[in-house]
């Protein structure tokens, strides 16, 4: 059985006149208002993907690895993987000859997990992983969303905006000590003569035997 229609009109509610009850004049009035905005207002939209937005340097797009002199700056210390909240980063390290001592055999970021927080960039001691300006990522399947070294490595020359931004932002906070220098990218005591200095100091203090035994331990 059909219900009784309820009249919900308020006591002092304005009644619509004939033209208003037709609705059409109001619709055309609305269309006219929109059309006037099309010509008068500045354009806020893009014809994406033909037109693309160029983000500011502070923008956090997909994380990338900095490539310098044909190699990754990364020393595979694992700090970024530890700091990453959704555990999107994984890697395997290998020892190499040279001042860096370590580099990644493979390095992966799962872009489906990445939340673009920038923590990896913040903790990296080498400025080896930074946030790029890339934001339009699309994948056909889940496997495609796992970026390996070949897709993560981006030449330092293409990241100057972000590297300069980090320099400007981080230096005031951590003093000039933060400034990235290639000579700082060495975690080895092999080339620095550090052990020899230690041994010489210890010999000067009359405890050469202890120093040489400790240097043997480290070098071994
Ligand atoms: S931006 Fe955040 S979520 Fe993405 S890889 Fe870096 S730490 Fe992980
Ligand atoms: S924190 Fe930097 S140097 Fe360490 S593994 Fe991550 S990208 Fe490489």
Task: Provide structural commentary.
Helices cover 34% and strands 15% of the residues. The protein is built from 8 helices and 7 strands. With 220 residues, it is an alpha+beta fold. Helix 7 runs antiparallel to helix 8. The chain has a domain at 63-183: Alpha-Beta Plaits (2-Layer Sandwich). It is elongated. The chain has helices at residues 18-22, 24-40, 79-83, 119-123, 149-152, 160-174, 194-204, 208-219; strands spanning 63-68, 71-72, 89-95, 102-110, 129-131, 146-147, 153-155. The strands form 2 sheets. Strands 1, 2, 5 and 7 form a 4-stranded mixed beta sheet that branches. The protein has a 3-stranded antiparallel beta sheet with strand order 3-4-6. Strand 3 and strand 4 form a beta hairpin. Mean pLDDT is 83; it is low at 207-220. The protein binds iron/sulfur cluster (2 copies). One iron/sulfur cluster binds at residues 63, 83-86, 88-89, 109, 114-120.
């Amino acid at each position: 059985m059909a219900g009784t229609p309820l009249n919900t009109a308020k006591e002092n509610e304005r009644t619509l006149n004939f033209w208003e009850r037709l609705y059409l004049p109001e619709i055309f009035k609305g269309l006219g208002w929109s059309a006037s905005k099309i010509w008068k207002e500045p354009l806020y939209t893009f014809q994406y993907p033909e037109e693309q937005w160029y983000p500011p340097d502070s923008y956090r797009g997909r994380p990338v690895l900095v490539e310098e002199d044909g190699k990754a700056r990364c020393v595979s210390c694992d700090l970024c993987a530890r700091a990453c909240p959704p555990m999107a980063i994984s890697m395997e390290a290998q020892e190499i000859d040279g001042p860096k001592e370590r580099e990644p055999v493979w390095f992966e970021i799962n872009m489906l997990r990445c939340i673009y927080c920038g923590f990896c960039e913040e903790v990296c001691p080498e400025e080896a992983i930074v946030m790029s300006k890339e934001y339009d990522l699309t994948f056909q399947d889940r496997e495609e969303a796992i970026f390996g070294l070949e897709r993560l490595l981006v030449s330092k020359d293409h990241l100057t905006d972000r590297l300069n931004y980090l320099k400007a932002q981080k230096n005031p906070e951590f003093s000039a000590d933060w400034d990235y220098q290639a000579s700082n990218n060495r975690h080895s005591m092999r080339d620095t003569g550090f052990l020899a200095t230690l041994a010489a100091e210890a010999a000067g203090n009359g405890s050469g035997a202890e120093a040489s035994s400790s240097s043997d331990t480290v070098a071994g």
